[in-house]
Amino acid sequence: MSSGGGHAAVFTMVNAFTDRAFSGNPAAVYILQAAADAGWMQAVAAEMAVPETAFVVPRDAGSYDLRWFTPTVEEELCGHATLASAHVLWERGLLPAGAEARFATRSGLVRASQAGSWIELDFPTERVVATEPPAGLLSGLGCSPRAVGKNRLDYLVELAEDSLVRTLDPKLHDCTELEARGVIVTARSASADYDFVSRFFALRENPPEDPVTGSAHCALGAYWAERLGRTELVGYQASRRGGVVKVRYCGPRTILLGQAVTVMRGELVW
């Protein structure tokens, strides 16, 4: 892919981890015929200006290369754009109904399959290890955590109450000393509809809050399974848009289930 006239690429805009338009987490999905230059993909993601843009390239039957870009960086792992990509493959008839989608990614192989009106994603577990909270994290949160942990991607902070998560207004965007992608803030749910609530704040993205973060649930699943004594859980990400993620913790793998809705189709020309 190169700049100039006469080029076009079709995209689909999907709201992921929701069954309603204009909620959940938006992702743009491009199905390409061949691998594209990383600089071009980053420029496209910046132009789309949604939390994630996914680029899917077919390999063989049911197998695809998948890369995820925010408007500023390439991601190591992204749940909602993977959900959106699988949704588009089935919706456009590029993958037969009931067939499994296999994605080769920077975090290894991830799988997607249909489960009624839900899509099931097979992801690596991102287990959290307890850690001492750095000063910048505590001052940025503006509240006292019950527990703090970290994995290869993010910090995880447990708060004492559901309401504290929902009303939190952290100042984390300028905490450049924190070496992580972002901060997951969570608590046990006050509602019987969910087992836990969470929010996700990126440290170097603007806007900093992600609407619904599938990859964060690869950490949240293991974390809450150990505390609640159950391996099948339902999480609610309490952002302004909101979204529901079902989680099944399976040791080294975490199964995420979500729904998706197409809200836009278009053509990028350059």
What does this structure look like?
This protein is of the alpha+beta class and 270 residues long. Helices cover 18% and strands 40% of the residues. The protein has 5 helices and 17 strands. The mean pLDDT is 95.
Q: Can I get a quick summary?
A:
Helices cover 18% and strands 40% of the residues. With 270 residues, the protein is α+β, with helices and mostly antiparallel strands. The mean pLDDT is 95.
Distance between the termini: 10 Å
Structural class by sheet pairing and helices: alpha+beta
Largest sheet: 17 strands, mixed
Spatial extent as radius of gyration? 18 Å
Reported CATH architecture of the largest domain = Roll
Strand and helix map with partners:
Layout: E1 8-16, E2 25-31, H1 38-48, E3 52-60, E4 63-69, H2 79-91, E5 101-105, E6 108-115, E7 118-124, E8 129-130, H3 135-141, E9 147-150, E10 154-158, H4 162-167, E11 182-188, E12 196-202, E13 209-210, H5 217-228, E14 232-237, E15 243-250, E16 253-258, E17 260-269
Parallel strand pairs: 2-3, 4-5, 10-11, 12-14
Antiparallel strand pairs: 1-2, 1-17, 3-4, 5-6, 6-7, 7-16, 8-9, 9-10, 11-12, 12-13, 14-15, 15-16
